[in-house]
């Protein structure tokens, strides 16, 4: 099952040096989750040949423009392309008003239904769940209400040990064993145990997304042991005081969070437009947490199971 992240935008408040506002697309199983939707997101989706028509859930971390101003254009394009399937939008209080006001004053009625889910910026919440994956929101410390998101695969089926398969192996036994249940054949009385006939499930993967936030150790429990962590790093380490005043983080601070949370990989982004070359960002992050990466537009990061 795929679990891969496409970077659509990686800059902060102002587009600069070919870098655009924050947006990411997570392909997890059958889902394409859009995470934040800065200005120009639909152009990046087209440029990178992403499956825009398969996006059914959009997660907006907070209501600063560089994280949602691309949303209306995308919604109208979906309408023009004759979308009919419901679209779920998760965001802070007021996002529904912003969208509905634009629809009202443009005298527009979408072909599809928007389903709004208001986030709680003060507590961890389960905001989406199906048979394969669950999504939790959690609070971040920013100048306005802001949430991070944790995308987690549920336990996968046990794997049948193919070396144990026989021509007369009951299909009912396979179905039960995949669920981790013992099966007894009513006709023969033969017992098919999980220990004997299966291999452990493949690893369940997780991705934690920490949008705009100042350094905050309180978020560590929410992202503990994530396979991949995105944590904003708007500034280099020498701007720690400025980062604190603007409720953002530095490279070293993002890396400290990654190390304390014992994550697999750290992905940094949300670069300030004051920096043309962002290579020093990853160099500084690796001083604290070696397995650090730069987010770069068009980049595809696969999380292996």
3D architecture notes:
This protein is α/β, with parallel strands linked by helices and 305 residues long. It contains nine helices and 18 strands. The chain has helices at 41-47, 71-80, 95-105, 171-178, 194-197, 220-223, 240-245, 251-261, 279-288; strands at 3-9, 23-28, 31-37, 55-59, 87-91, 114-118, 125-129, 133-139, 147-153, 159-160, 183-184, 191-192, 198-199, 206-210, 228-232, 265-269, 292-294, 300-302. The strands form four sheets. It has a seven-stranded mixed beta sheet with strand order 6-5-4-3-2-1-18. The protein has a seven-stranded mixed beta sheet with strand order 7-8-9-14-15-16-17, covered by helices on one side. Strands 10-13 form a two-stranded antiparallel ribbon. The chain is globular and about 70 Å long.
Mean pLDDT: 95
Q: What is the number of strand segments?
A: 18
Helix fraction bin = 10-25%
Question: What's the CATH first level of the largest domain?
Answer: Alpha Beta
Structural class: alpha/beta
The biggest sheet, with number of strands, parallel, antiparallel or mixed sense and barrel status, is: 7 strands, mixed
| Total count of domains | 2
Question: What is the terminal-to-terminal distance?
Answer: 9 Å
- Radius of gyration, Cα only, in angstroms? 22 Å
Give a summary of the structure in a few sentences:
This protein has 2 domains: 3-156 and 202-302, Metallo-beta-lactamase, Chain A (4-Layer Sandwich), CATH 3.60.15.10; 159-199, no CATH class. It contains 9 helices and 18 strands.
């Amino acid at each position: 099952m795929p679990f891969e992240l496409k970077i659509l935008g990686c800059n902060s408040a102002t587009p600069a040096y070919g870098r655009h506002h924050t947006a990411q697309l997570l392909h997890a199983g059958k889902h394409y989750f859009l995470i934040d939707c800065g200005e120009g997101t639909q152009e990046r989706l087209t440029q990178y040949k992403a499956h825009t028509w398969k996006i059914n859930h959009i997660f907006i971390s907070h209501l600063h423009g560089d994280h949602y101003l691309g949303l209306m254009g995308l919604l109208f394009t979906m309408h023009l392309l004759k979308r009919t399937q419901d679209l779920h939008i998760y965001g802070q209080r007021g996002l529904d008003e912003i969208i509905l006001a634009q629809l009202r004053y443009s005298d527009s009625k979408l072909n599809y239904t928007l389903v709004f889910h208001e986030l709680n910026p003060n507590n961890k919440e389960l905001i989406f769940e199906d048979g394969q994956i669950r999504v939790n929101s959690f609070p971040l410390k920013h100048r306005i209400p802001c949430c991070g998101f944790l995308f987690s695969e549920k336990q996968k089926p046990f794997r049948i040990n193919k070396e144990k398969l026989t021509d007369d192996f009951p299909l009912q036994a396979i179905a039960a064993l995949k669920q981790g249940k013992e099966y007894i054949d009513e006709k023969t009385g033969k017992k098919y145990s999980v220990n004997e006939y299966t291999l452990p499930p493949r690893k369940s993967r997780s991705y934690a997304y920490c949008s705009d936030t100042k350094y905050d150790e309180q978020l560590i429990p929410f992202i503990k042991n994530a396979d991949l962590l995105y944590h904003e790093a708007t500034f280099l380490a020498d701007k720690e005081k400025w980062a604190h005043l603007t409720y953002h983080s530095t490279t070293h601070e993002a890396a400290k969070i990654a190390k304390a949370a014992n994550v697999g990989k750290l992905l940094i982004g949300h670069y300030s437009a004051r920096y043309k070359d962002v290579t020093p960002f990853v160099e500084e992050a690796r001083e604290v947490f070696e397995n650090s990466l730069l987010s770069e537009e068009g980049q595809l990061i696969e999380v292996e199971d």
